[in-house]
Amino acid sequence: MNLTDLTVYSDSKHHLLWAESMVGGSTELNNIGNIALWVGVLEHAFSTLGFIILGLKAKKETAIFYNINILICAISTYCYLLMATREGDYVTYHGHLQFWPRYFEFTVGTPLLLLDLGLVANAEKSQIFFIVVCDVFMMWSGWSAAIAKTESVKWVMFGVSCLFFAPIISTLLGTLRKNVESSPIAVKKLYDFLSLYTVVIWSGYPIIWLLRDGFHLIDLNTECVMHTIIDMFAKDVFGYILISNHHVFEDHDTVDTVTAIVDAEHNLPPLPPSPRAIRT
Predict the structure, then answer these.
(1) Between residues 182 and 237, which one has the greater pLDDT?
(2) d(CA 162, CA 142)
(3) Domains of the chain by range and CATH?
């Protein structure tokens, strides 16, 4: 081993020791962290299969919700598999281990969750586009904060991420709620619950970031356990709640169709005069 190798080894060891001292423990995965990641693989795989089976009997007007939640859980399964097999490791400048598939999952999966809510609220395309763009920038700002080389950049990027979260909250709890005011009471109640549920659950992600990447109060393994739990509620449980209420949309569509037919029969416009009658 030459002097250059010793210098690189010394620097790497220094970064690792610095990271361990900052989090108060090992930066490597132990059995607890590994188990948490594999539990994530299994829970999302089970939900993917469950949504596929349930979707086989779905009616046309609700099939879109099954398809979206199948994609959400399938993407989560893939990303958790990458993390569990250690194919998604990313070591930061300070020797801090991060998982890039987690942020890939956030970037691709959470817009689909917002699409679910947008469809329930019968939102306009521009409204859905707006919150999806904010969501993508929120996630990538969070990733930039997680891998930042300096403390100042880290906190600036975290602040930017929170700024993009703010319009998502205001849209879900404000603008889109107004969209369902004229909807049947069952649809309105479902959206009110799911929108508030989403905001509360999603608020847990920046808290986890603060605990590990921000203030270094927890280690990697604790973070994995917390993410596995919160992902289950944010994706799997959310999907089952939505799917279990699919009758709300079926009933709504049926009532609207019958009402339209009855109104059309009782309010037929007068027939125009025939050309022969006009000539005479």
Answers:
(1) 237
(2) 9
(3) 3-248 (1.20.1070.10)
